[in-house]
Recover the amino acids of this structure.
RNA sequence: GGAGGGGUGGCCGAGCGGUCAAUGGCAGCAGACUGUAAAUCUGCCGGGUUUCACCCUACGUUGGUUCAAAUCCAACCCCCUCCA
């Protein structure tokens, strides 16, 4: 499909599009002039993770294509606690925690989007502003009548649960109504005519466009991204250690860079398109690299992706650390450190650097030859390390012992 | 309400009186091979320690039988299937 709007052409070429409610009409609207679009984000944690990055990049492209992005923080919905996909009720956060999380998350968005008061400057807003003001009876009379239970039951999120006879609470059932109302509110306040999100949000988004049509008689659109998976089928960004955080307080620059550097060969092109701003012809060139050459492309991916999220200086420093550490077998400046006043055993060093959770685990590393001091296998548990020496666990985890 | 089946380590899933910290698979960690990749092969894989050993905690919950229980019994909780 050929799009006439810069916005959809970009998204399409880069692999962001899964479904659109009315692609031709959205394309026409985006070609005609600036549109306003939003994506909603959870604020249960002080940082977002890689899983949110596709949406963030989409907002970035939106703005670059001359449109206005709205970032909706789910402050109100967080207070309710979205139970989907969870076995236990989420720990409910109080206002103060939510405010702190929002402030922290905003700093991430400021790297990807330009905020301000201009016509295409990004806006961040908390849906608690309107959700907590709602009154049940008026709300049900004004909006509840537009939602058909018959239809809500056909949405995957509900239908699958019912078919599997899994419990679905009334609270959860209402979640999609709140989200639909968010969209309506944004349509009224900002003239927002597009909601974007992951493919799992399709049902919620369609509910919003329907509500806007019924209440306001206006057309609004929805667009979802595909679920991004890795070449081996695993969900993107879920490592055994947990989420890959965007915020540096949660994950050091070097580790963030390394995450991207360790991308599977088969994913390099896809990730370059989704997670960097590099021109497509440049990406095509990098993607075509074969054999060990593809490592160049991975380094570019890592540096570009890190530059977006953490700043170019941090990205270049991480790249340099990786180069000296891996290519030269040395030790770069970004490696984690453990300060000690006097030499300690390799066991304590591994624990101090966070490479082993217990002495038992550290001993296993030594026994299996995975623990190295300045690149040489430690040999025994009693080997000593002092300031200035590099300690490694396996091939990818390296750290420095420093005086202190 | 009646009948039957089941709840096991991060997940799936064996075991059904001692030799069980519990087969196997997945995930994870480490090693070899490589390109800081994939695939493959090997080892580790509940926790701890003074580690060729020892000590804790574990098989839904609580009691009981037994020299000895994940395995038998009872009660309870939860899940599933069939009948009403």
């Amino acid at each position: 499909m050929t799009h006439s709007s810069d916005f959809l052409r970009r998204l399409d070429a880069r692999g962001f599009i899964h479904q659109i409610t009315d692609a031709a009409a959205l394309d026409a609207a985006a070609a005609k002039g600036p549109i306003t679009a939003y994506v909603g984000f959870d604020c249960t944690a002080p940082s977002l993770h890689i899983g949110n990055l596709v949406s963030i990049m989409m907002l970035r492209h939106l703005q670059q294509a001359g449109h206005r992005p709205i970032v909706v923080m789910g402050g109100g919905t967080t207070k309710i606690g979205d139970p989907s996909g969870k076995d236990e009720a989420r720990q409910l956060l109080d206002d103060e925690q939510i405010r702190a999380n929002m402030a922290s998350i905003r700093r991430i968005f400021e790297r990807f989007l330009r905020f301000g008061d201009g016509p295409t400057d990004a806006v961040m807003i908390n849906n608690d502003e309107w959700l907590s003001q709602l009154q049940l009876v008026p709300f049900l009379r004004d909006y509840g009548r537009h939602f058909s239970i018959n239809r809500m039951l056909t949405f995957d999120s509900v239908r699958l649960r019912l078919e599997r006879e899994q419990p679905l609470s009334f609270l959860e059932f209402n979640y999609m109504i709140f989200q639909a109302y968010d969209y309506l509110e944004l349509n009224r306040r900002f003239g927002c005519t597009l909601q974007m999100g992951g493919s799992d949000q399709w049902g919620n988004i369609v509910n919003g466009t329907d509500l806007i049509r019924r209440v306001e008689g206006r057309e609004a659109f929805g667009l979802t991204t595909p679920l991004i998976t890795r070449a081996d089928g695993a969900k993107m960004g879920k490592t055994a250690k947990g989420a890959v955080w965007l915020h540096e307080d949660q994950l050091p620059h070097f580790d963030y860079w390394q995450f991207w550097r360790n991308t599977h060969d088969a994913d390099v092109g896809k990730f370059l398109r989704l997670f960097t701003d590099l021109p497509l012809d440049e990406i095509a060139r990098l993607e075509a690299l074969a054999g060990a050459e593809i490592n160049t492309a991975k380094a570019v991916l890592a540096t570009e992706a890190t530059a977006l999220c953490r700043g170019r200086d941090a990205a270049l420093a991480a790249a340099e650390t990786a180069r000296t550490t891996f290519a030269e077998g040395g030790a770069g400046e970004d490696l984690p450190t453990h300060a000690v006043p006097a030499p300690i055993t390799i066991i304590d060093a591994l624990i101090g650097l966070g490479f082993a959770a217990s002495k038992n685990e550290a001993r296993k590393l030594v026994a299996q030859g995975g623990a190295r001091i300045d690149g040489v296998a430690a040999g025994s548990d009693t080997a000593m390390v002092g300031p200035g020496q590099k300690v490694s666990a396996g091939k990818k985890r390296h750290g420095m012992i420093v005086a202190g």
About this structure: Residues 281 and 287 of chain A are 10 Å apart (CA to CA). The first helix of chain A runs from residue 6 to 14.
